[in-house]
Amino acid sequence: MSEDAVEFSCPFCKAKFDVPKVYTYATCPYCGTTFRIDNPEAHVEHYIFTASYDKNSVYRLLKEFALMQVGIAEDFESATEFESSYMYLVPLYIYEVNVKAGCRGGKEEAEEGKVEIDVHGGEETAYIVTPAAQGLPMHIPEGYSFPARGRRFFRPAIVGEGVYLQPSLDPEAVFKSVKEPYVSKAVSEAVAACGDNYDLVDNSKYVGVAHYPFWLVRYRYRGRTYTSVVDASDGTVLHLEYPMGVKSRVVGLVGGVAIVLVAAAIGGLITGAALGLPIHGFLGGALSSLSALGVAVGRFIRSKGVYRYRPSEEAVFVPMR
Ligand SMILES: [Zn+2]
Fold first, then answer.
1. Which of 139, 186, 241, 274 could cross-link to 122 by cystine, CB 3.0-4.6 Å?
2. Ligand 1 centre and the CA of 216: distance in Å?
3. Integer Cα distance of 301 and 171 in angstroms
4. Spacing, Cα 8 to ligand 1 middle (Å)
5. Mean of the per-residue pLDDT values of the chain
């Protein structure tokens, strides 16, 4: 056993295994029971979202998606070859937020100890699914819409299908921070309606842990590696790097040259006007801009396009490098 791990006994099947100290939860590799390390006897709901895309179908999907992108290399289809793919099972926490800030006054005593609250004020409800670990091998955009449907109870056999990542964030701390905007919205509505004369009722619930499949796919094009990330459950492309074609590079290059020449002309004219020698002034300006032109050319030749998923699902094209 390494220094960074602690030996645990599964609360269900009693099998013994090592758990790294940084984990918040552990999943028994023998029976699949998930438990909190600081409270192994407490019941934890554990779900899995099933992958609908296998290795081959996800690579096919990626290529089709890449071909729809603006400026993709003309020989992309024939010059691209598969390099590697890994399915990661990313840990998530699921919460159901339900907060009411009801104005007092309309309240009635229903039963002893229970108060019926007039929901004149604010009520907020939400279903929240959010990453349960930091430092994931892929970036999952803030507000990424994980489906509410399609989750099943966890089965240990699924672990073998991908790289299984453990939750490491504190679920209570995450709960508090995801709930906060809903609480303040409900409260501010109540304050607008009845000042400080409200009661806050929080029926929010921590549902449990879930694992969600993402593919990390690498392919090669003319000796360079391009990376992409795809939601293995619904096929959403979160990130796609792709080579840009000669035509788009030329457009970029012409743009770069045009900008540099205009700058040179302006620089030359100003210098020339100051010296009373317009022609030499212009040439001097153009020559001094050659190094700038070189930089511009270099930048456009190495163009690579990147597609990034946005929660609004609009296509975002970001040329980089
Ligand atoms: Zn077990």
1. 186
2. 30
3. 47
4. 10
5. 77
